Amino acid sequence: MFCRAKVDPYLIETLKGKNYIEVEPNVTIYDLNRKYRITFDLYRIPFNEGRGGSPEPLAGAGFNGKSNYFPRFSPDGRWIVFTQSDTGMAIQPDSKLCIIPAEGGAARQLECNTSIMNSWHSWSPNSRWLVFSSKVNTPYTELFITHIDQNGTASVPVLLSRFSGDTQACVAPEFVDLAPDAIRHISLSGE
């Protein structure tokens, strides 16, 4: 799976060969989103016994007037969770986690979404837990965990408070399939 968007000729002209946009100090992400509206749609490439094929839009996760990105399959193959926002891809204040059946269909927002910046998610090996980042409490990202039931319904999110702090942000969490006794202690740098 991947996401793609049409290239904005105005943005290409603005960049003029650079890989960044120069902005004044008082310009916000909201200003940039209004000026450079980019929406991504999710696609999949069929496996076809390793021969691949042409990219196909994922029904329900594209061409909906929103930006759809960061797709992650559940390890059991039943679900895809992706991030959706009005525009853009990263650090979007309105970003929400959405879930859709793996074969495509109606996407819906997960019940665990906080009020601001939900993204960078990862499934547990048993497909029953999802860890994600949010900025609901601070200007820095924190990790949250939610339980996903058989119907793809999420529980209320729980803050994993030991992984962040006043001077530390957490982003891009990843579940790892290890034996239960493989990790005996986790500590943060400086503790």
What does this structure look like?
By secondary structure, this protein is mainly beta. It contains 2 helices and 11 strands; from the N terminus they run E-H-H-E-E-E-E-E-E-E-E-E-E. The strands form 3 sheets. It has a 4-stranded antiparallel β-sheet, with no helix packed on it. The chain has a 4-stranded antiparallel β-sheet with strand order 8-9-10-11, with no helix packed on it. A 3-stranded antiparallel β-sheet has the order 1-2-3, with no helix packed on it. Helix content is 7%, strand content 27%. The mean pLDDT is 90. The protein has helices at residues 9-15, 29-35; strands at residues 2-4, 41-44, 56-57, 67-73, 79-85, 96-101, 108-109, 118-123, 129-134, 142-147, 158-159. It has one domain (2-163).
Brief summary:
The protein is built from 2 helices and 11 strands.
Please give the oligomerization state of what you see: single chain
Overall SS class = mainly beta
| Strand percentage | 25-35%
Helical percent range?
under 10%
Summarize the helix and strand pattern as letters: EHHEEEEEEEEEE
Q: Compute the number of strand runs.
A: 11
Structural domain count: 1
Arrangement of strands in the largest sheet? 4-5-6-7
What is the tally of helical segments? 2
Distance between the termini: 39 Å
